[in-house]
From TrEMBL:
The chain crosses the membrane at residues 20-44, 56-77, 86-105, 111-132, 144-168, 174-194, 206-225, 231-254, 274-298, 310-330, 342-360, 366-382, 412-429, 449-470. It is found in: Cell membrane. It is a multi-pass membrane protein. Keywords: Cell membrane, Membrane, Transmembrane, Transmembrane helix, Transport. Residues 20-474 form the Major facilitator superfamily (MFS) profile domain. PROSITE patterns: MFS. This is Drug resistance transporter, EmrB/QacA subfamily. Its main location: membrane. It comes from Agromyces flavus. Residues 486-508 are annotated as: Disordered. It comes from the Bacteria.
Length: 508
């Protein structure tokens, strides 16, 4: 009788684990595909809605801005109220945002929908990862997380191609209708096949004020960076935006020192390794998002390569392939040459690639872009994976959850801020060159060049940051932490030893 009960329990546990793997992996694939596809759709959305591409960059930066504010809070909500409940809330919100965007006749609707998607996407990734960890143990947990990371990587890689294909056939709205349908299919699966879990040891307090202040820091900063060249960098509107950002940042620090469960544990910022790894993640993720935004505009502009959306998505395939191919090689490379050297090499490759792109001319064909863009993707993979692993290896087990939250927030912040900066450079240089009498093609090439120079400078700073990373690390990354390389473009993983220490999953 006892054996029969045990067998039934084991079968149910396996069923729940499999259900969690399917639901979280499919949703992660859809979220990452949606995120990477939107830049390719910007020209088509602009033409259809009559909204300038300069304005529609908020569809990209707004998503990341809200995601940065919500990523840690959504995980905390899952720990307190139940991860399945909050995960389902993320799915419903994602479906609603897709419908809003697909039905929008104006750019403001697209931007609003994308901001909502920033919240839903961050929630799906954060709570999905926690559900997956709670449903598996040991080798099964490592396997599940690796598959989740692979699904995330495949989604990010396929997004531009699928989005471009749909934009060229069904219209740009097709991506959002299909994403809504897939997310909707995950809802009944989650209800039936995913077990609820929470963290009874976590404080019931939620840092709502910190969440709002993160948005208050980033929104005016991005607004100022985006419009600074048009307003004038010393103008009252621009300086006012930056002043609000500074005041919100001061307020954030004051709040985080006093709340019971802070959004950001400020004491962790004394850890030089964590700070170096986090800034490296910010730079790497930010530059990749920024270059894909510029590439999507440049490749589809009639004055330059004049690609349609599908051709532009297809043109990004070598970039995506490079990231997918290198992901499983990262752990062996780190084992051979060390984390700090791997990170430095990644940033060197990215810097050299951007230097090459800085020589772009109006006469360049697509073939001349391929190798530098592959270099950017390869370099990002080499630096981002080890940084993700080190960000959890350089702190005490009980601090791993907070450290991974900092890394995840950095990804969103980097994408939001650096895309805004590059969008400002690209549009500003283009306008000035056209006003100076240059042809559209020459002006756009010059804008692409200056954008590449800006990104190259950031990557050069990353080389210097690599000197901070991996110094005085008290332990080597575990096998589980090494798996973070596969998911490094979307999430930093929380290892199971942190779960046991009270920082992660605890089934109820």
């Amino acid at each position: 009788m006892g054996d029969s009960t045990s067998d039934t329990t084991t079968a149910a546990t396996k069923r729940y684990a499999q259900g969690a793997l399917i639901a979280t992996s499919v949703s992660a694939l859809v979220v990452n595909a949606n995120t990477s596809a939107v830049s390719i759709l910007i020209p088509a959305i602009s033409e259809d809605t009559g909204t300038p591409t300069d304005t529609l960059q908020w569809a990209v930066t707004g998503y990341s801005l809200v995601g940065a504010a919500v990523i840690v809070t959504s995980g905390a909500l899952g720990d307190v109220f139940g991860r399945r409940k909050i995960f389902l809330g993320g799915l419903f919100l994602f479906i609603a945002s897709c419908v809003l965007i697909a039905l929008s006749q104006e750019g403001i609707g697209v931007i609003a929908g994308r901001c909502i998607q920033g919240a839903s996407g961050a929630t799906i990734l954060a709570c999905g990862m926690s559900l997956l960890s709670a449903s598996n143990t040991g080798k099964a947990q490592l396997r599940a997380v690796t598959l989740w990371g692979a699904a995330s990587a495949i989604g990010a890689a396929a997004g531009p191609l699928v989005g471009g294909l749909l934009a060229s056939t069904l219209g740009w709205q097709g991506l959002f209708w299909i994403d809504a349908a897939i997310a909707a299919a995950c809802v009944p699966l989650t209800f039936v096949a995913v077990q609820e879990s929470s963290d009874p040891n976590r404080s019931r307090s939620i840092d709502w004020t910190g969440t709002v202040l993160i948005a208050a820091i980033l929104a005016p900063l991005i607004f100022g960076l985006t419009n600074g060249s048009a307003w004038g960098w010393a103008s009252l509107p621009t300086l006012s935006c930056f002043a609000i950002t500074i005041l919100a940042a001061v307020g954030f620090v004051l709040v985080e020192r006093r709340v019971k469960a802070p959004l950001l544990d400020l004491s962790l910022l004394r850890n030089k390794i964590l700070v170096g790894a986090t800034l490296s993640i910010l730079l790497g993720s930010g530059t990749v998002n920024a270059i894909m935004y510029v590439v999507s505009l440049y490749f589809q502009d009639p004055a330059t390569l004049d690609m349609d959306a599908f051709q532009a998505g297809l043109a990004t395939l070598p970039v995506a392939a490079a990231a997918v191919v290198i992901a499983p090689l990262i752990t062996p490379i780190v084992g051979r040459i060390g984390a700090r050297t791997t990170i430095a090499v990644g940033f060197v490759i990215m810097t050299v690639s951007f230097i090459a792109l800085a020589f772009v001319q109006a006469s360049w064909t697509y073939a001349l872009f391929v190798l530098p863009l592959i270099g950017v993707a390869a370099g990002m993979s080499l630096q981002n994976g080890p940084c993700s692993s080190l960000s959890t290896a350089c702190v005490e087990p009980g601090e791993v959850g907070a450290a991974s939250g900092i890394s995840n927030m950095a990804r969103y912040v980097g994408a939001a801020v650096m895309t805004a900066i590059v969008a400002s450079v690209y549009s500003g240089v283009t306008a000035r060159r056209v006003d100076a009498g240059e042809s559209d093609a020459e002006a756009l090439a010059e804008a692409f060049s200056w954008s590449s120079i800006a990104m190259g400078i950031w990557c050069a700073l990353g080389i210097a940051l690599a000197l901070l990373v991996a110094r005085h690390v008290t332990r080597r990354p575990t096998e589980f932490e090494a798996a973070a390389a596969a998911a490094s473009t979307s999430h930093t993983l929380t290892p199971p030893d942190a779960v046991e220490a009270g920082a992660g999953a605890a089934p109820r």
